[in-house]
Specification:
Helix content is 63%, strand content 10%. The chain is α/β, with parallel strands linked by helices. It is found in: Cell membrane.
Length: 605
């Protein structure tokens, strides 16, 4: 079995950058759907959301009241020189701004809580989903890209919820309030203030139309870079062994460059927004001062007062600021929607359990596996053709054949990582497709060529086979696996912490640990992918001895690379291009003097 079933596949070749073209209609449809789904997450925080809305309403109202009071101060108290009234108004103004600040503090406080809880649930759901997806999903994707969805994309949603939601809501309220008060004070100056809006609107539209697709492209490129880094870091040994550093750096350079380009353009175009808004803002200031000044002089303050001009200059800023904010936040929102779309894409993938509503839960199994004219292909081309054999409890079936012959694929079907196309596979006479995957895998254990160990103690790694095993049971399994002796010689014995890849102990020792793990799991079906790598003869003997102990009474499938280790197997199946070309025990196959015989002779020599 190739180790890529459990580890990231290592690929040098560049996966072509997705050329994202944005179909507007499709995008809009996805966007509203994504927003709806995001809203479902937010709805869990209804209580806090209501408080935030209340605080935003209060702060927006108080934000409007402030300049209005300043205008009043000018017209009613400064021009008429009434000091007492002015003093009272100033105290009022201080109170207004104090409450304004308090309401802003509270809205931020509650919104941060909402954002954290939302992304917490989102992360949890996505991580759960990873575990419900079939192996075929992971076989086809770069791990780094999936990681990037769990980290960057969700971070994006977090940032937007923290900043944008409040800003957008506050901006809309401020806009409506400002227009209402402006119309009440002077319709003429309102028209003057608003005359810059068409220009602002056009500029914003032009920019957001370009930044939306760019943000999406940027997210994709980031996923691409992360995927590549993950792949190369996990394949460092191979990169160095084959002196491929230059090629790998060039591969990274290409992806990094693409990310730089999209990032540059997304930010540059988005960066135009504040500049254009500022320019238009100054223009509206000048227009208000000009038209207001003329009105004051011509109508002698009957139509417009000095205080009203001051209020309008402040409102003009308040009016364009939310527009400015809206466009900025809208950009952030677009990037968060792009991010959450990528998260929801994973959540929408077909999960393994979907067809398991009526599946059979197998409490106990004998372990009789039967293949009856089974065919299978990962995609359209057939890989396995007409495979038939039977494996009974206590028996060992070994698969032999050249690389790509289909040995791993047979194991993939037995463990239901993939489902067969035609024919039938049964476990104790029950069709495998009708058995719940988790219940089937409960009765299986794997000892792989490249043993996978998690970061944690040796004890925890062995206990992974059966989580409720006691310390005594863990140690008994280690003894049966011939691992106890080397474990107790380690500085912290069973509590020695291993790195994720188990560095610190040898390849053979790792193998012994995975055998102990399998012994603890006590499955009825065993899959052994024979180690071919550099294991010393003594450890090799220990492994063989431990495996023999492990295989007693179980149905064992062995992917054999060296034929001398499978001479005692009950059935040896010789595969070629996905077909069984010879089947029998060692002596029978030797007597046949066919392909197995040839292979055996070749290895002996
Ligand atoms: N996930 C996959 N998607 C598509 N094709 C696959 C996949 N995994 C394997 N194959 C193809 O199926 C065929 C059989 O592969 P398989 O891994 O079963 O061979 P194998 O006998 O185990 O080889 P090896 O000894 O090299 O591990 C090969 O042609 C391979 O390219």
């Amino acid at each position: 079995m190739s180790s890529n079933q459990l580890k990231a596949p290592f690929q040098y070749e560049k996966i072509p950058l997705k050329n994202v073209t944005v179909d507007n209609k499709k995008k809009a449809k996805n966007m509203s759907n994504t927003l709806k789904r995001l809203w479902n997450y937010l709805a869990a925080e209804k209580g806090k959301l209501i408080l935030v809305i209340l605080m935003v309403t209060i702060s927006s109202g108080l934000g409007l009241l402030g300049p209005f009071m300043v205008g009043m101060a000018i017209d009613d108290y400064i021009v008429t020189q009434e000091a007492a009234g002015l003093g009272m108004l100033l105290v009022g103004l201080i109170i207004v701004y104090l409450f304004h600040s308090l309401s802003i503090f509270l809205q931020n406080y509650w919104m941060i809580g909402i954002a954290q809880n939302t992304v917490y649930t989102l992360r949890k759901d996505l991580f759960k989903q990873f575990h419900r997806l079939p192996i075929s999903y992971f076989d086809k994707r770069q791990y780094g890209d999936l990681m990037s969805r769990l980290t960057n994309d969700i971070d994006n949603v977090n940032n937007t919820l923290n900043q944008s939601v409040i800003q957008i809501f506050a901006s809309v309220l401020t806009l409506i309030g400002t227009v209402a008060v402006m119309l009440y004070l002077s319709p003429i100056l309102t028209v003057v203030t608003m005359s810059v809006i068409p220009a602002m609107f056009l500029a914003m539209r032009w920019i957001t139309k370009r930044t939306g697709p760019l943000y999406k492209l940027q997210q994709n490129d980031l996923g691409e870079v992360n995927g590549y880094v993950e792949e190369i870091v996990s394949g460092q040994h191979i990169v160095k062994t084959y002196s491929q550093e230059e090629k790998v750096i060039r591969g990274f350079e290409k992806r990094n460059h693409s990310l730089k380009q999209t990032g540059f353009w997304a930010l540059t175009i988005a960066g135009f927004i504040p500049k254009i808004m500022n320019m238009l803002n100054f223009l509206s200031f000048a227009l208000i001062a000009l038209v207001g000044g003329i009105l004051v002089i011509v109508y002698d303050q009957q139509l417009v007062t000095v205080g009203i001009i001051v209020i309008f200059t402040e409102y003009a800023r308040q009016f364009t600021r939310p527009l400015n904010e809206l466009s900025n936040q809208f950009n952030l929102l677009l990037s968060a929607i792009a991010g959450s779309e990528r998260v929801f894409q994973v959540m929408d993938e077909t999960i393994e359990e979907i067809d398991e509503t009526n599946a059979i839960e197998m409490e106990n199994t004998k372990g009789t596996i039967k293949f009856d004219h089974v065919t299978f292909g990962y995609e359209d081309t057939a890989i396995l053709k007409g495979i038939s054999f039977e494996a009974n409890p206590g028996e060992t079936v070994a698969f032999v054949g050249h690389t790509g012959a289909g040995k791993t694929t047979i194991i993939n079907l037995i463990s239901r990582f993939y489902d067969y196309n035609t024919g039938k596979i049964t476990l104790d006479g029950i069709d495998l497709k009708t058995i719940k995957r988790s219940s089937l895998r409960q009765h299986m254990a794997f000892v792989l060529q490249d043993p996978f160990l998690f970061h944690g103690t040796i004890r925890e790694n062995i206990r992974y086979g059966r989580l409720d095993a006691t310390d005594t049971e863990v140690e008994a399994a280690a003894m049966d696996a011939n691992a106890h002796d080397f474990i107790v010689k380690l500085p912290n014995s069973y509590d020695t912490i291993l790195d994720q890849d188990g560095s610190g102990i040898s390849q053979g020792q790792k193998q012994l640990l995975t055998i102990a793990r399998a012994l603890l799991a006590a499955p009825s079906i065993l899959v052994l992918d024979e180690a071919t790598s550099n294991i010393d003869t003594i450890t090799e003997m220990k492994i063989q001895e431990a495996l023999k102990r492990l295989m007693v009474g179980r149905t064992s499938f062995v992917i054999a690379h060296r034929l001398n280790t499978i001479q005692e197997a009950d059935t040896i199946i010789m595969l070629e291009h996905g077909e069984i070309i010879e089947q029998g025990n060692h002596d029978e196959l030797i007597n046949q003097k066919g392909s197995y015989y040839g292979l055996y002779k070749g290895q002996i020599q």
